[in-house]
Amino acid sequence: MRKTLINLTLALLAGSVHAAPSVYPTGVTRYDPDKAYNQYVIFSGADKQTHLIDMDGNEVKRWPQAGFPSAIIDPALVGGQRGHVLLQLADKDPGKLGAAGNGLGNQSIGELDWSGKVVWQWGDKAPGGAAQQHHDQRRLSNGNTLVLANKVHAVPGFKVPQVIDDVVYEVAPDGRIQWQWLASEHLEEFGFTAEQLQLVRASNNPDYLHINNLNVVGPNRWYDAGDQRFAPDNLLLDSRNANFIAIIDKHSGKVVWSLGPNLPHVSPNPQASQPLPRPVDQFVGQHDAHIIPAGLPGAGHLLVFDNQGSAGYPSVPLGLASGSRVLEIDPTTRQIVWQYSAASSMQPGWAFYSSFISSARRLPNGNTLIDEGMNGRFFQVTSAGEIVWEYVSPYLGQAPGSEAISNWVYRALPVNYDWVPAGTPRAQTPVKLAQR
Questions:
Q1: How far is the C-alpha of 378 from the C-alpha of 390, rounded, in Å?
Q2: CA–CA separation, 297 and 15 (whole Å)
Q3: How far is CA 152 from CA 132, 179, 353, 404, in A?
Q4: I need a surface site. Which of 90, 186, 372, 425 has the fewest CB within 10 A?
């Protein structure tokens, strides 16, 4: 798979030829085993299948189901069994409100073992008889499963007759919902001004918040020091369409911490190197916000992929040359303590950009694994911005909301070598960056 060249005449499958390069590299394009953190990576490709690759880009495992996103399960939560995943299992007609960015077509989700056997499934017992999960699902330490889903219903005061609301379910192994939370019941807690609330309710888009991320806060030093807002079982989520990140108290359901939606405007060149630390400036259309887990460099800080894609009430004005950022933020001082942009790797700002989807995860050696989602490109960067591993997905499929062919990837997650069954192959062959 390494350095595979895909001829873009495959675009003919979409019925037309586009003004794009005729060939481009896929697979691993650079790799320094001494500087990279060596691991597997799991992702659901545009081909609607889930792939586990090694550092050479070899596919070592494939599940023929997609995940939105694929989620790995800690072996300690399944009796020590390795290689269990949470994926989407069945689709249905999503109706007129269905779209690539919501869960209305998702009939059921489930846990699969390494062999692909379904060992747990949820959907029939969901409200309305369908899971409608989107953007996140994860197994909790108590054995329950946390599900981010959609609920279509009328909300008083909204212009549209029905909204695509965001709902969180905590589902017991027997399928019963033990806890739930509904976004529309907390609109006035998210930091909107009165004028912005009017814009939210007057929106023509029924997916008015589009919450695209759900995480458990997890053990952290802020809670250990007495800050109850960061209780480990609290939930952290973010709204792509409204530019905010929030922590939800698991017991009261109230918002106890938030960042955005109204932040200082970024500099004329938001991707350029700037002094750190500095106050958080305006992120736009962000994804994958989470607290860096205990034991990793930067533990307790917030890590988020700042797409700088069009979003907000009103929409945040963007610069002429767009570029994305990855921000590491101290959630107590609300300052950026580390940032990655294309400029960090001595590239022009537009060389790193994904206006939607994408992710960023801290690794044990201090590197960060980044998914530039709309281009299907994953790479590891050091804290100094050096790219030490890079991979471009060769798995093609229909682009979201389009008939075009793309290799887009919603999220890419790091997977330690000990997560897989013993004897699973892996390779670590250096790849030097081709001379330009």
A1: 6
A2: 47
A3: 10, 19, 32, 29
A4: 425
Instruction: Name the residue among 231, 234, 229, 228 with its Cα closest to residue 216.
Output: 234
**pLDDT confidence bin for 372, thresholds 50/70/90:** very high
Asked if omega into 277 is within 30° of 0 (cis), the reply is yes
Q: Following DSSP, what letter does each residue of 201-234 receive, concatenated?
A: HT-S-SS-S-EEEEEE--S-HHHHTT-GGG-TT-
DSSP state letters, 132-195: -EEEEEEE-TTS-EEEEEEEEE--TT-SSSSEEEEEEEEE-TTS-EEEEEEGGGGGGGS---HH
Alpha-carbon distance 210 to 403, whole Å? Answer: 23
- For residue 135, being part of any structural domain is answered with yes
Give residue 434's pLDDT: 64
Tokens in use for 430? Answer: 């250096």
Structure tokens at 182: 């509904």
Question: Over pLDDT 70: what percentage of the chain?
Answer: 92
pLDDT at 37 over 90: yes
pLDDT, tens digit (0-9, with 9 covering 90-100), for 379-434: 999 999 999 999 999 999 999 888 899 999 999 999 999 999 999 999 999 999 76
Q: Is residue 356 part of a domain?
A: yes
Instruction: Identify whether 436 is part of a domain.
Output: no
> What one-letter code names the amino acid at 417?
Y
pLDDT of residue 271: 53
Q: Residue 198: give the domain boundaries.
A: 5-419
Nearest partner of 318 among 373, 280, 355, 372, judged by Cα: 355
Distance CA 332, CA 243 (A): 19
Averaged confidence pLDDT in the chain: 93
Measured in Å, how far apart are the chain's first and last C-alpha atoms?
A: 22
Q: How many other CB atoms are there within 10 angstroms of residue 34's CB atom?
A: 7
Measured distance CA(207)–CA(250) in Å, rounded: 24
Instruction: Find the CATH number of the domain harbouring 46.
Output: 2.120.10.30
Tokens in use for 105? 């077509």
Tally of structural domains, the chain: 1
Question: Does 172 reside within a domain?
Answer: yes
pLDDT digits (tens, 9 = 90+) for 159-177: 999 999 999 999 999 999 9
Least confidently predicted of 16-25, 219-228, 338-347, 366-375? 16-25
